[in-house]
Amino acid sequence: MQQSRPERHGQITGIMKAQIDHLPLEFGGMRPTQGRTLAVMQVSGGSQSFNAVNTLRLLGRWMRMFTIPNQSSIAMAFKEFDEDGRLRASSYYDRIVDVMEELVRFTVLTRSHADQLVDRYSERKAAAAKRDAAQYLASRSTA
C-alpha cells in the first residue's frame, strides 16, 4: 500500500484523516491493514517538511502495517508538475521511484512471513474465548 497525502498547515488534511478513520478496526478478528507493507509520501505547497509523512508512519504503526524506511516529500509541488499533471523529471521523481522500488522489495520479503509477523497472543486469546463460548452454548442447547 502506498499513501501519498498533501500537507496543509503543517499536517495531513482533515479529509485524509477522516478517510483513514473510516477503515474498520477489525474484520473477522483482524485489522484489514495488518501485515501489509506501507510506503509514505507527501506533497506540500510550501517549503520542505516531513510532518505528514511522520503522521502517516504513526498511523501505519497503529494500523499494524510494515512501513518501509524510505519516504518522499515534494516541496512546492505546484512547480513540479507539467500541464498534463505528470511529475517532471527531477530528484523528486527519482526519489519516488526509489521509494516505490523499496516498497516492492519489502513486500516481496515480508509477504511469505506475514502470518508469523502479525501473530499476537492477545488476538489468539480473544479468538479462543469466542470459540469456547460458542462451544459452551452449543453444548447447552443439545443437553
TrEMBL record:
SUPFAM superfamilies attached to this UniProt entry: Flavoproteins
Source organism, top-level taxon: Bacteria
Record-annotated NADPH-dependent FMN reductase-like domain positions: 6-77
GO MF term set: oxidoreductase activity, acting on NAD(P)H, quinone or similar compound as acceptor
Protein name per the record: NADPH-dependent FMN reductase-like domain-containing protein
